[in-house]
Amino acid sequence: MTSAGYRFLWLLKMLILIVGLGVVLFMFGSVSLQAEFRSLKPEPPGSPLGVQVLKLLPEERLRNLFTYDGIWLFPKNQCKCETTEEQRSYNFQDAYDQSDLPAVKARRQAEFEHFQRREGLPRPPPLLAQPNLPFGYPVHGVEVMPLHTIPIPGLQFEGPDAPVYEVTLTASLGTLNTLADIPDSVVQGRGQKQLTISTSDRKLLKFILQHVTYTSSGYQHHMVDMVSMESKSSVAKFPVTIRHPVIPRLYDPGPERKLRDLVTIATKTFLRPHKLMIMLQSIREYYPDLTVIVADDSKKPLDIKDSHVEYYTMPFRKGWFAGRNLAISQVTTKYVLWVDDDFFFNDKTKIEVLVDVLEKTELDMVGGSVQRNAFQFKLLLEQSENGDCLHKRTGSFQPLEGFPGCVVTSGVANFFLAHTERLQRVGFDPRLQRVAHSEFFIDGLGSLLVGSCPDVMIGHQSRSPAVDSDLAALEKIYSTYRTNTNAQIQFKLALHYFKNHLECTQEGTQKKH
Amino acid sequence: MTSAGYRFLWLLKMLILIVGLGVVLFMFGSVSLQAEFRSLKPEPPGSPLGVQVLKLLPEERLRNLFTYDGIWLFPKNQCKCETTEEQRSYNFQDAYDQSDLPAVKARRQAEFEHFQRREGLPRPPPLLAQPNLPFGYPVHGVEVMPLHTIPIPGLQFEGPDAPVYEVTLTASLGTLNTLADIPDSVVQGRGQKQLTISTSDRKLLKFILQHVTYTSSGYQHHMVDMVSMESKSSVAKFPVTIRHPVIPRLYDPGPERKLRDLVTIATKTFLRPHKLMIMLQSIREYYPDLTVIVADDSKKPLDIKDSHVEYYTMPFRKGWFAGRNLAISQVTTKYVLWVDDDFFFNDKTKIEVLVDVLEKTELDMVGGSVQRNAFQFKLLLEQSENGDCLHKRTGSFQPLEGFPGCVVTSGVANFFLAHTERLQRVGFDPRLQRVAHSEFFIDGLGSLLVGSCPDVMIGHQSRSPAVDSDLAALEKIYSTYRTNTNAQIQFKLALHYFKNHLECTQEGTQKKH
């Protein structure tokens, strides 16, 4: 070999050595100028103040941060209802005999689990995305109807270049496909639970991913399928929700939007025909043609001569909430106005104002004042495994947007306008035969968004005994049914324990928060 | 300078040149041996078959892929209901006078939009995650109750090393905080809508992120807050759903699980007292103490001497579905068994079997056979902007898991056991006064999961006219009410158009799919 040849070989060896060294130097140089002069060990830069101790805020600090109306609305093992100066509390278990309690608890747990299964609860734990995954995918919001097909948006693969790209998608409650027109050698598993794309063409991979479809198999109402997307050792998961939309139940207000086609008045009466008639007459002074539905569980039926009254009789003393549920079950208009049989309409009883509020907001119902009392109260729920804690406070949550003078709350008086379809969905529990009020709003928790406009008022007939002796006697009988006996109180507490899966309740006045 | 010095300088220049060249060669060399010999232009390797044309499958192929029972269940602009040999179709607009149609459409659109707003629809478009983001975050499943606080799981930052790390989280329907006990110099905006973390300590950043909390401000029932997480120019978004759970409505079956405490029978009668009495007597042969609720809109009330019958009267001819809605509104047990007043119980009418099916599955209701006919039908919905298309097919979707002989379907006969609370939630529309059946199941779409167990049977009383002349006369009057007049048909079609936001329907026999 010539001397130039030897020199070339030597240069080649130097090249390899230098390239190696150059790469190492290059990598460190790219971090920062400062890093070049540091030690080669990858130690994280310390805080200028020294190392920070990692600790959490103590519980008293947390309680101050996340308290509303004196209630700590933060996840905890078991909620509690405490009796203080301002608040009374009831433990619902006290409504049962100690000896019955274990069996009651077991039955309640069994019923609760059955309920949960039908509601698709508990929901699966949150799905967490890992950082630096080479995938694009839909994080939230992909929904498909049972048996339907949808394209999955946003699927991407941005991994490093490779001679061949292999991406696999896997579903469990449905099958996968792609709208791309390509041979089976590139995509396998079309119409199956696992779709595998295998190509060396990056543009083709992108195109296929842009047009992947999901077809839900089987008829179910609410499930969440976790679809996974993998390539080499990287895996991303995203949810596809299988849900059947609830079909609308709309009411035609008619071309003239007459109040008669929009609103039905509903009431229930028992042993108070004289008060009912006064109430009806007062309605007719202001609203001569609105339909009034009357549910009556008195001993003898009435003969009401009013062509716009619909009259229903029930078994004697069947009950207060049974009658309320009956009355609302007969309404054929978009809205229903509830009134008690001992109210009376006056010139402040403006149904049109309440209609306007419901038409223009997302509220399900809006109450007015009875005399001057709006009877507003808030309900706050803490969920726990052994039963939830229900906190009741007077007052409201916040003003109602667009309606100064109106507020958002949880409960109102028995003078309210409601979306018929929403009110029927919750209903009045016919097991509540005598005294009951807040139970309806508790049953409506999570279902009914409630407002209150205290400026819309209805009168309350005098509570003084009737002059007429027959009527006075009837009123006396009636009042015996209004007495909240101990047995009835125990019954209602037990009902809250079992029906609503509650542990206890705490009632008090509004605290500043 | 010496010649060795010059040579050294020349070597240094060569070094820099070679290192540069070596780095370039090294990068290409790391791809594959093959790549070293290729051109230096970064052209993606082509498929051995040549470049693939990017095109989608033609529509006929797509239709074959995503068709169920002859219906193409794939997103489209406007669905259609076609009349073929096997299927009839109805366009619901035909029920209106042409001159009224524009006003009707406008009213329906206004009512539909109001309904959508109250349901939180339409849902926001899917949130898409970008690839290679240096963040970890919860993709799906983080829920918070209104006014409550929750920790946000899975927040991570895995970006490149830096002297200072700055990560900003931003919410809009709630405020952010962290449970980490650290000074305000590190975290700013605690309890505000924007939280900024600024530290050079990577472990501290990790700790703070692990304990970020979200507090929902304001009382609302269903909203989705898009929370963003950013650092330098990288942004990730994830959803936090503000939702109030629906409070449970459970029924205590009692320590002995007596059928009387689990099931109430409900029926409606009109001008058929003789048939009603035969039906009641047949119930008592097999179930002497089950409560039977009877809603009656005949002219004259009956006197039913049965201490377990609850009897309700209604305005004369108020109607079929009004009566059904009334009857179910009075039920106080977990389950309600619906029967028509002209059925009769026999030894195949095993209520216990139906109870077992509902206790062990997620079905909301399960029907049996009347005589030998199960009257099963499926409903498939295609949603479109101008109104949905409803397809009706006989048969079922799939077998019911755990119950051979039972199936999942959409509609059944008027002999079914249902969860009272679920049935009341849907209800029977009192606007349907005369002939109606499938309307109930259509109203239940998306709300009721329906099954059918044809082996549980009830008898149907003979349709031959009564021998007794008075009864025969009554039956004649009754049958006039059962005639589906043209006016009533038009009324029901218009009701589907407006109430259910439907465009058309298509009914046919089951196709193979």
TrEMBL record, chains A, B:
Q: What membrane topology is annotated for this entry?
A: Single-pass type II membrane protein
Molecular function GO terms recorded: acetylgalactosaminyltransferase activity
> What is one GO cellular-component annotation here?
Golgi membrane
Lineage top rank: taxon: Eukaryota
- GO biological process, any: UDP-N-acetylglucosamine metabolic process
Cellular location(s) = Golgi apparatus membrane
The UniProt entry, under InterPro entries, shows: Glyco_trans_2-like, GM2_synthase, Nucleotide-diphossugar_trans
Keywords of the record: Disulfide bond, Glycosyltransferase, Golgi apparatus, Membrane, Signal-anchor, Transferase, Transmembrane, Transmembrane helix
> Entry's Pfam families?
Glycos_transf_2
Tagged with keyword Signal: no
Boundaries of each Glycosyltransferase 2-like domain copy? 266-373
Kindly list the residue ranges recorded as spanning the membrane: none
Q: Which family does it belong to?
A: Belongs to the glycosyltransferase 2 family.
Q: How does it assemble?
A: Homodimer; disulfide-linked.
Q: What is this protein called?
A: Beta-1,4 N-acetylgalactosaminyltransferase
